[in-house]
Every structure is written in C-alpha cells, then in structure tokens.
Amino acid sequence: MKKRLMFVAFLVLTISIASGAFRYGGGGSYLAYQKFDLTGINTILAEQGFPQLKEDGFGYGGFGYGKVSGDIIVGGGGMEISLKGTKGNKVSNIKIESGGLYLAKQINFSDKFNMKIGSILGGLDKTLVIQEITDDPFLNREYSIITESNFLFNPVVDLEYMITSFMSLQVGVGKSFLVNHGEPTLDTIKFGKMPELYLRLGFGF
C-alpha cells in the first residue's frame, strides 16, 4: 500500500511541476517516533506463550510535495514501522504501513524559517506475524498472519529550517486517528496518547 501511494504522490507531483502548476517542489526521507497502546494484544500473546511486543519504535519513510499559490502545500508520502518481541525461538512482530495525501498551509517567518500546518489523509495497514524460528530455515513455523486495514487521518505541524537553498531540516509533531473499514481483527493495536514525532530531511527546487 505504502509504495503505491508514494508512487502516485510523486507521479502527480512530477506532472504538476512539469505543467507549471507548482511554484516549487521537492521531497526527501524522514524518521518518525511512535508510541502505541498494545495492552490488549500483549495479554493475548502472553496467554498463548508468545513474546509481548514493545510499545514504541522508530519508523522510516519518504515524502514528496509541491507548493501552489497561496502558500498551500500538496503532496504525499508513506512510512513503515515494525514492533517486535522475542522469547527463546518465538517471535511476535507487528508491521504498520501508512501513507496518503498531504495537504498543508505554509506560514513563513523568514527566508530560512517557516511552519507548515496540515494533515495526511490515507490508509494504514497492520499486520501481525507470529513465528517459531529454528536453526534450519525449512523447519521455521509461521503460526499466524493477520492483517487489518484502516482509514488514516493524521494532523501534523512541522517547523522547517532551510539549511541551504535546496536542502531543509524539518521537525514535526502529529497525531494519528484511525477508522476501521473491515473486520476489526487487530483493534487491540492502538496508537497511544502521546503524539508522534517526526524528523525530515528535504530537498527541493
């Protein structure tokens, strides 16, 4: 899902810039710290003799954007985070992939410093994998693979500092809200009360 959304975002960005719709554009990569509430799923895993998952971690992703008239930013991006627990030869792992359309308003404080207030609208997939690992890969056991899809609404605020005319450093904070649109198979995997933190390195023109 993430790769498809990022491909669409970058494709739209490229076409729009080529047609002169955007005043400038760019993209880059970012690091995100997220805290989760995994009390429910960890209780279930412990009852079945599987390791519990850690409740926080760092995710990695990429983004692309363009600026239109009126200091409106349009773009997209996506990221992935993996939370893993190990107990002997047993492994529990939850993979969370998210991505979507990014819309924001840019407020300029100076030539080098600005703030972006916006949100990401898209999707988020959770996948839980439970395994037993052995020295012989042919004897590894994969007990369960469960996936749940959600709509994602992620308001974000970023502070951007222009390091050079084409490179910037962005520090942001956001909060993810989910709406399940299928079977709530992994509804015990929730975002915690703490907001997410983002560090982005961008390149533009």
Give structural notes.
The protein is mainly β. It has a single domain, classed as Porin (Beta Barrel), CATH 2.40.160. 13% of the residues lie in helices and 62% in strands. It has an eight-stranded antiparallel barrel with strand order 1-2-3-4-5-6-7-10. The longest helix has 17 residues. The protein is elongated, with a radius of gyration of 19 Å.
CATH-level-2 architecture: Beta Barrel
* CATH fold-level label: Porin
- Please indicate the percent range of residues in DSSP E strands (runs of 2 or more): over 45%
Tell me the helix content. 10-25%
Q: Flag low-confidence runs.
A: none
- Give the tally of structural domains: 1
The mean pLDDT is 83
> Measured on Cα atoms, how large is the radius of gyration?
19 Å
The number of distinct helices, counting runs of at least 4 residues, comes to 2
Main-sheet strand order equals: 1-2-3-4-5-6-7-10
CATH class: Mainly Beta
**CA-to-CA gap between the ends?**
28 Å
In N-to-C order, the SSE pattern is HEHEEEEEEEEE
Indicate the structural class: mainly beta
Gross morphology is elongated
User: Largest sheet at a glance?
Assistant: 8 strands, antiparallel, barrel
Let me know the number of strands. 10
Question: Which features does this protein show?
Answer:
Porin, 2 helices, 13% helix, 205 residues, mainly beta, single chain, 8-stranded antiparallel barrel
What's the gist of this structure?
This protein is mainly beta and 205 residues long. It has helices at 2-18, 39-47, and strands spanning 24-37, 56-68, 72-87, 90-108, 113-132, 141-162, 167-174, 177-180, 190-191, 196-204.
